[in-house]
Structures are given as C-alpha cells and as structure tokens.
Amino acid sequence: MPEEKDKANQQSNRGFTRRESFVKLGLGSLASAGVGVAVSGYEFLSPNVLYEPSPITDVGKADQYPQGSVTADPKAGIYIIHGPEGFYSLSAVCTHLGCLTTWAPELGKSGLIACPCHGSKFDLEGTKVDGPAPRPLPWFRMWISDEGNLMVDRSTTVPARQYLRT
Ligand code: FES
Fold it and tell me: What is the pTM of this model?
C-alpha cells in the first residue's frame, strides 16, 4: 500500500511540476509580449521628426572679413563677401543639381564661383556666367546680432544687391 501511495505522490509531483512549468512558460510569454507592446507603443507615440541644424549661422565679427574678401563656409554652405557696398551672403549650393561650389579667384577678371560638377560659374553677385545652372545663387538675409556678430539666415533669401552696411 505505501508503494502505491508513493507512486501516486510521484505522479502528482510530476503533474504539479509540469503544470508549474506551463504556468511559468505562459507568464514568460506574456511578459515578452508586454515588452514588445511597450516598445512598439513608445515608438508609435514618440514624434517622428528629423532634427536639422538651425539655418541661422553666426559668422563672427565683421572685422575678420577685410574689404574685397570672399570667405567660404562649406559647412554652412554659404559665402560671406565684403564688397565695396557692404556685406552680403550667397548660397554656395549650385542651383543646377545642388553641388557645393568653390571660390576660384584665378578665374575671370575678379574671380568666379565655380561648380565642380557640371561647370556652372557665377560672378561675385551670384549671377550665372556659364554652365547649366538655371538660376543665380540666392542671397541670404544678414544682420548684426546684439553681440556685434554678423548673422546669416539660410532659410530667408533677399533680393540681390541688398547689402549689409556696418
Ligand atoms: S550641379 Fe553645379 S553645374 Fe550641375
């Protein structure tokens, strides 16, 4: 008789162990499903935005740009030009297919802005003089900050020959 009782207990223990392992397996599945729902819910609720750098660039003090200078800022994609009429900023991005232009002082009478991609060339006021570019280089708004620095807003164009006088 005790042997039968032991056998029943063993079966009962085995059944309980199996049940317990199913419960643990179920809880594990629920937990991993919960984590999946939480992660996808967070991704769904977080804003899907592209963080871009500000279009406003501080290009420093005016006295670092001597009269007649053409200064490229390739990182910002602009030129700071100190002409006889004052300061102005041109886009350095070619209006053909968007290549970054370079200042070539050896070209033309007083230098040209040249595009390395398809050969467009622009004079110092951004007017196209050669190549396939369909439009002149745009002029960007410039002003002087409260700290006395030259500022350029690459998101705002102004009519050509709108100079900043300091
Ligand atoms: S991108 Fe400048 S000429 Fe084509």
Answer: 0.71
